[in-house]
Amino acid sequence: MGLLIILPLLVSGYLVCIKHPYYYCRLHRFDGQLLYLQVARLGVACLLAATFLSALVLVVSNQNLYAGGRLVPTDYSDYLGSQLVQLDIANEKNCTLWVFLLQVGLTSMLMPFCWARLYVLSKSSRLSLENATQLDWQLTLGILEGTPFKTLLKESIQQQVPCMFSFSDRKVYVGIVAVVGGPTESDGVDHAFTLIPLLSGYRDKDTLEVTLNTHYANVITPAPIMLIQENVVSATRFDFTTWNTFQSRKHRKARQGQFYQHRPARPLKASRACA
Prior knowledge:
The chain has helices at 3-19, 21-25, 33-61, 76-86, 95-127, 132-142, 148-159, 240-259, 270-274; strands spanning 65-67, 70-72, 163-167, 171-180, 192-203, 210-215, 225-228, 232-237. By secondary structure, it is of the alpha+beta class.
């Protein structure tokens, strides 16, 4: 009889983790014992809801229901209990309990599907979303937190903030993050992201000075670039005003250095020196 409680609890908890969009996006955060506790926690919630619903249905089924002046039999527990007794699964004393536990177990395994559907409908209605893709995008933004890099990606997506990314091969990209990779059961959003490029270049091998020599301003719709997050060495917000000011100062200093460059004196001949 204990299996009628433990098995539906674990199955319903796992189904919530897989079917519910909110918990599925965060499933990769749980591993080992934390995953067991998460499944058990969600399973208990489904089991409690199923217990309350089953008790309510049993109470209503015991009431007399008349239709067209005739009594309509609605008490199904007696019929199911007699069937369990005939199959030698239960006896006369506990057949009602068996019926109740079976109903609770079956109802608890249906709860994850209803829970997930209600969540999708309520979330879509509250945010005025048109399709499931927009909902997935909103849920992905919700898990872009916890580290400064994820916060930077989220800010770039939501506020269209240009960012500069330096990679391990010394390549540099400046652009706006369009989307990040969706999470799975075992991996989060730490794999790749798509960037709409504005500028690109490289870092000097010796000084690591940034040179941006490719401009995408002349392209109406630049092709998005998919980049791997683990190759990113540094990332920061990019301000065009600051960059242009820095470049103008750099070129001005270079011109001044060339203008005031010291020229070595030419050696004079002895005859000219004596004259």
